[in-house]
Amino acid sequence: MNHNLYAAFAAGFSRRLEQPCLILTDGRAWTYGDIERASARMANLLVRLGLRRGDRIAMQTDKSPEALVLYLASLRAGMVFLPLNPAYQAQEVEYFLNDAQPGLFVCRPQFREAALLLAAQSGVAHTLVLDENGRGSLIDLAAAQSDIFETVQSGPEELAAILYTSGTTGRSKGAMLSHRNLLSNAETLCREWRFTPADVLLHMLPIFHIHGLFVACHCTLLAGSAMLFEPRFDVRRAIEALPDATMFMGVPTYYTRLLAEPGFTRKCARGIRLFVSGSAPLLAETFTAFAQRTGQRILERYGMTEGGMYTSNPYAGDRRCGSVGPALPGVELRVVDDAGRPCGAGVPGHIQVRGENVFSGYWRMPEKTAEEFTDDGFFRTGDIGHLDKDGYLFISGRARDLIISGGLNIYPKEIEDVIDALPGVAESAVIGLPHADFGEAVTAVVIGERGAQLSADAIAAAVRERLAAFKVPKRVFIAADLPRNAMGKVQKNLLREQYAHRQAGAPAGCSKPE
Fold first, then answer.
1. Any idea of the CA torsion for 489, 494, 500, 505, to the nearest 10 degrees?
2. Could you tell me the residue ranges of all domains in the chain?
3. Nearby residues of 291 by Cβ (< 8 Å), 6 or more positions away
4. 402-511 in CATH: which number?
5. What pTM did the predictor assign?
6. pLDDT digits (tens, 9 = 90+) for 188-219
């Protein structure tokens, strides 16, 4: 049996070669037959370049059908795909190239000169170009290749991709994902979210990340569905395209921007059978407002680079506000205390997972890999949360975001939930900053709604009314925005750096409650 992920895709869409796979903004469509032939030409090119099974293919380009085809071609040829965020600068790319040592680096035209220099320094044999319109030397060379290619026979544990973690603390780590890891998760999500060939997914996510590449694309390719393949999220375009779709996946920011548009109505959303949110926490306020506006409850799920999706609220059943749902079939999930003992319902602890979708380890980092797995094979996610009596998981935050003040553990999300519910507050982020007496001081950075006049003292007082005194922020800063990564996650490490120097004294716009 061929365990190659592409072989699994092709088994489904071989019966739909004349059906659309990708529908572009201008109405042009790539059929499944087009995808089959284009990925064959690309795979033949990879082999013609002298690349061999197991070689890495690094890609830092804009989203396009051709970029997706390059990923599929690397699977077909038994190579390892390495997608990179187009926002990365030269110094960051240099690290990834040195660490992964790819045989091919595909970049945007405007980065070509820097890429050639970095490739020479890193020992990358080939550098090719692909622009946002699907043109460039990569396509020119592939056009001359045969459109027939026999997909390589791959074992289940052979690597299919390496995705680097965001590196918010220390060195970025390359999560090694096998064909079995990716296929098992795709099959589970297809079943749980009831994908069919009749579905049309409005795809506005980037494809350098697991959400847009693995969750969205894998499910549609495995089911033989179609994607409205948009280059990026645009709220006006989303409102235009939603009536032609049956599914939509997004990060919380997409949903808040939709809700801010009067044109986003119940009628606009009525053809969508499933709205999915992930990659960052969905505020309860957004969940509730969306249900009121559309009559639909967003399905929130939980996962990470190191294993795809671990939990999901049910397709049919109770989608609980604030929860990411129970563990998916085939995933074992537990919450344990610092000593590794199981936590009872409602008691926060460390989230650990085990299953076929969980990665094998970090690229060339055996010591770090060993640290992140328990003796019985559970992966330490680094997240803090609790299970309710029905097995629904609630995330409190990252373990490294845990605040220890005066010897007491404080979970930021509990405080953020209180602040976010206050009138005039759009969003908040709670962090711990160094404090000579307490070790860490609870600090809140608060974003107001447009036109709102927020008082730092009033915010601190409101928290004091609802939570224990040791959880009340010692400092509250009113800010214009929060630093985020490409997937909309608040980068608390940057917040800590930004506000660390403001601990002495009490500058305007903040209060210092005792």
1. -60
2. 5-12+30-155, 193-297, 402-511
3. 297, 298
4. 3.30.300.30
5. 0.84
6. 999 999 999 999 999 999 999 999 999 999 99
